[in-house]
Please model this.
Amino acid sequence: MRQLLIAGLIVLSTLAEGVAADPPTVVTVDKDGVQRVDVLAGEYFFQPRHIVVKVNMPVELKVRKEALIIPHDIVIDAPLAGITVNESLSRDPKSISFTPTKSGTYPMFCSKKPPFMSSHREKGMEGLLEVVE
Model:
């Protein structure tokens, strides 16, 4: 029993390190000058979890959720940087466009919270939008 517990802890530790070690997704600029990235909202995660875009260039997030029943949204609240996103998600991709005007690192997260339970953000459904020069 003890060996099983130790093995389980090792697996969990390895998984946690893998999540933390996910490299950022640096978004390239398309020929039309727009930075496009597909984002998947899964069971309490966003993939990619860390997105890097350039300042003062249009961004288009194409976001969809994989869950059938569980509601999810995406929130990025950085109005001083020209970014205000608060969109409910469905299984059909939704295009969200904005142009970041200030470099910095901004949290993106799911704001859903079932009654008497932890919020989706507390369960790990969050990431970063990093805006660079």
Observations:
- Residues 4-19 have pLDDT under 50 and may be disordered.
